[in-house]
Amino acid sequence: MWSPTIAILLLFVASSTTKTVDLSHRGLKKEDFFMELQTQINLADVTDLILRENEFDSFLDCSTNLANLRTLDLSQNHLQRFFFLCKDEYNLQLLNVSHNKLEYIDDNAFNDRIPKLKILDLSWNKLSIVNETMLEHFKILEYLSLANNPINNGIHENAFWNLKALRYLNLSNVSSSHFTSVYFKTLSNLSTLDLSDNPLRMVPLLPINLEELDLSGTYISGLQDVFLPQLRELKLNNMQNLKELSFNDLENLTSLEILSVVGSKKLIHLKLFPYNGRILPRLQQLLINDCSLKTLDYNMLPIIKRTAVLNLQNNPWNCDCKMQWMSMSNSTRILSRNIKCSAPDEHRDKLLSEIPNYELECDDQASVFHPVLWACILILVVAIILAVGFFLLKRPLGRWDIGRKNRDTVTYKNVDESSNDMVRILAVNDAIERNEE
User: Fold this and answer.
1) Are 320 and 360 a contacting pair, CB within 8 Å?
2) How buried is 166 (Cβ within 10 angstroms: 0-12 exposed, 13-18 middle, 19+ buried)?
3) What count of Cα atoms within 13 Å lies in the side-chain half-sphere of residue 297?
4) What are the residues facing 145 on neighbouring strands?
5) Is 342:348 a contact under the CB 8 Å cutoff?
6) For residue 396, what pLDDT is reported?
7) Per the confidence metrics, is the pTM higher than 0.85?
8) For residue 302, which of 272, 324, 328, 282 has the smallest C-alpha distance?
């Protein structure tokens, strides 16, 4: 199927002089077309030739006259090769060879004979390499899709360097684990980039002029340091490793209007702290449905109040005291009508707006309070024990008794008398000792 972008470009290349021949869904083989049908049709006058969903395994321009051809649709055939060899220059502007069996694009297919090409769809083939010469002649190409090819890391670093007019690039599901900044170095007009469904773990360095970016289905877990001041739409659908979305990381996306995070089943937390007015000032649509959000922090209120379209449906909401703030303003009350509770059991399948605030209780408050209480008691007991021990060690010792084996016991008493009394006592003791001798 044509994407909306291709449909718009189709209208662009169409004119009142268009002559279309639609032979799609006929089960035609190349022999049927080149040997029979073209004898009945003056292909020299045809501008749009639609051969979609037939059984062509190759297409050779030498077998027909395509002098005025501007659109050629060979999608959903069995093409393994095609060539433009027999005319010096074609007026071809749109070529669709998607959903075929192409493994390699020969230099005789993409050459200087079709320099006016603006739209090229190579998606859903078996391409494993995009070399530096494959696209070198398409200097006015605006739309390129290589989606759903097993390219892996087979894109040459210079593969897109001549595509300076390119506005749309689709590299979805090409099994690439990284895209270096060199790929996009010369793509100064690129506005739409699709990198979805690739095993990316980090956001690559991207053209600063991007307006639409799709990172859906990747393994990226955060969006730190992403600087895309002209980006209007960001898709993060079906993310594999995104557990927390910090809106502070989006501070440099000052033109963002649409943020889609649909079906990211590991997403459990939205974070906005600290808040400042530079975060997503132009946001109009915030789509975070079918994820795993259980609660919504009060810090999200500034974003919610100024976002016109907000979809938070089909999340396993836990309707407890942490959601009471949702009834504070008209904007949040309207939102609460679309939030269906999954827990606790007494509120299951109820809308948050139907539950009075006094019934939004937190069951985990007691479970948190008791451990804290016991910890405080334990600390108090230890402090008392240490204080008692310190007091016993520091108090004055009233008496010391020292026992010695086979000797008399000598008893010392604390004496608190005047110096004269002390002299008298010593004198008496000396006299007694002399008498004994």
Assistant:
1) yes
2) buried
3) 16
4) 121, 170
5) yes
6) 55
7) no
8) 272
